[in-house]
Predict the structure.
Amino acid sequence: MKLLREKIENEGIVLSDGVLKVDSFLNHQIDPLLMKEIGLEFARRFKSESVTKIVTIESSGISPAVMAGLEMGVKVVFARKRKSLTLNDNLLVSSVYSFTKNEENNIAVSSQFLNSDDRVLIIDDFLANGEAAKGLIDIVNQSGASVIGIGIVIEKSFQKGAGELVEQGYKVESLAKIQSLQEGKVCFVDQHEEVTV
């Protein structure tokens, strides 16, 4: 996705060989025009899948998921990381390890928002080792719903997450794939070539 790639090239900051900071448009400040295009692209890529719900995780997955939900005409459910007085009954819970925060979190979704008839698209901001996606898959499976695909804004292809999810039979669509973050540079993976910026 050209616009996303340009944003990463112009505004992304490589903090280490494993961490890309994109808080100027995705993880802290949100670029609504970019999110609109991301929503359109996810809707295009999963058009034939008869999606009935989108599931994501707070907080950075919410904006791309909402824009995709708007384009697809479906509701968006986000897993919460923190307990709430209003979220306490009939919870679907899974444990997720965060690479960037170096901590384990329980995530939860109310069972009233997912059922066995749902065809769920999972959307998240990053895919590295796949922990968040696996936690969301676990929650969807607990509900009896079906995961029809996983949409990722930025995939770190040099980490194992995407490969493991594809091996498990999931359709993974990533809008930007990064081959490496070495020497302070983002190296993208294209279908036919690799480009260093």
